[in-house]
Amino acid sequence: MKKFTKKSSDVNHDGYCIVSSVKPKRGKKNILHRMAIDFPSSSVTAILGPSGGGKTTLLSVLTDSIHSNIQACAELNLPGESAFVPQQDSLHGFYTVRQYMHHYARLSGLPRNKATAQRIDTLIKQLGLQGQAEIRVGDIFIKGLSGGQKRRLSIALEALTNPNNFFLDEPTSGLDAESALQVMDFLKNYARAGPGRRVILTIHQPSSFIWTMIDHVVLLSQGKLMYQGPRDEIENFFSAAGFPTQHGWNPSDHYVTAVNDEFRDHELSVDEWADLFLDWSEETPQMGLAKQARPSILAASQEGYIKTHRAGCGPGVVIELTYRYFLNLWFNPGILGTRIAMYSMLALMVGALFWELGDRTDYESINSRAAVLFYCVAFFIFMSVAVLPFTVIERAIVDKEVQNNYYHPILYQVSQGLSSIPGAAVLAGLTTGIVVFMTKLQNPEWYFLDMFLSLLVAEALAQLVSHVVPHFVIGMAVIAGMYGFFMLFQGFMLIPSDFPDWLRWTYNVAFHTYSWRTFMDNEFRGRTFDSELFPTGEAVLKAFEIDDVNKTFDMIVLVGYAGVIHLVSFFVLVVKYNFFKGKLAPLDETARSPPPRRAKTNKKPMRNPSPKAFTPAIHELLDDVEVDV
């Protein structure tokens, strides 16, 4: 057959991906094998195949979100801006649908004008959310949207900035038939609404109606390319191979079943299917068109790219994220309210147990003062661990927003640091008012400042740990261990001179040290007691080896401690989103050529199959079913 040729300028296949290999860094088995895939503009491309076929891995390559333990060698050319909608809907529950859209418009730097408002209203209507526009998204504290409605909102949010490359992982998952059809209709119209747009999605089991709305198909099995090309041509390929779709079958089910040989023997193995597609695509004009166009594209752009850009400015993003944090506190009062209740209860218990302790001057009151101040440092600071679950839960939202480049992760950390200040002030003021009033300790202004700065350090540490740990339970265990270390070496249980020489450095590392000794200096300096052993407060401080404490210096140390932790958080975030993410290695020239064929076997595909032979595995399964009449 004579091959079809055409000038590259006439070809619409302006997006592509060439994969050489994708495999674990410590393994030899490929997750994805060599393949070349076109992603035509103005089209909806569906990636489908059996479970474990490589759909998610291919999508991670296309969206530049490869895991750090994966080694990928590929070349991408997907011009323009990109947006990705993950399968799990990561959303805040306190926004209404309309508020969430406006929030993302501000994060993106879109102008606050009538055109943006109209764009938002149009998207809400197109995705069938007009009846829910003023309903809150909902979470474990707030009842709101259904799962399908959240899914459609996630799509609307990412469509707001009109990305050229719109990636979606299972966009119809969890949707009823009508909702799924409307989502696909929206995506199809979206791809055709502007030049250079393309929608690329994974889909598990499209219905026959949804199948007709797909323009381009990528069929994978066991990490190998079974077919890529126009949806209208895939039936020709399977018919030529001897496996046409029988009457009454959903075509997509038939194609996925035919190339899946995991459960029982099929007429053709996955390797044979891969070879058949290569042979057929070279002999078919429509497929040869894309293959001949690719070298011309490569000559013009040797480095493909995925680019995502949002126009939001740094200060504006920080303000928006900080505002979002306080909205969360307002609509979920349990986040801060639970902590207020915990701090209030313990402060009241401390006040009741040590009622008017400050009026006493006996020897026992000295021990009681030191003990209550140790408790205030140890447990009021320890209870800051309660913020960790909410920080870890929000991480999925932040990961999605950072991947879609709404902001740099450092801006998020700056926002978190600013957001923690009012909460720490409220908790410090609450404990100061209750404890100092009931126990009559000295200098409440210094007590407040010390507790406030200590809580800021504790909040910063909780945020740092949340960036590292996979689950908040692990994070709470990590922080508990660190605080146990700090409490042990802060100088209350054992004075610094009694530390073993090789552990003496720990006294200066624990930030509890500076909090506790400032509390002690604040309470004891200038006091007299009815005790021959400790007639003055200075004698008590000397016994604990903190008689030379400078309270101002210790407060400066706490501020610096919080600053250092935030700087470490900045470093961790940069490493996490850059160095702990897989990178695409460049292709060598051999990767641009078609994959090598397997050795030919005597087995030939069927050209005139019987109705039973086209999917033998399914019919064998049906034959085994016994029906009792």
TrEMBL record:
It comes from the Eukaryota. It is a multi-pass membrane protein. InterPro entries: AAA+_ATPase, ABC2_TM, ABC_transporter-like_ATP-bd, ABC_transporter-like_CS, ABCG_dom, P-loop_NTPase, Plant_ABCG. Residues 6-247 form the ABC transporter domain. One of its GO terms (cellular component) is membrane. GO terms for molecular function: ABC-type transporter activity; ATP binding; ATP hydrolysis activity. Pfam families: ABC2_membrane, ABC2_membrane_7, ABC_tran. The keyword Transmembrane applies. This is White-brown complex homolog protein 30. The lineage of its organism: Eukaryota, Sar, Stramenopiles, Ochrophyta, Bacillariophyta.
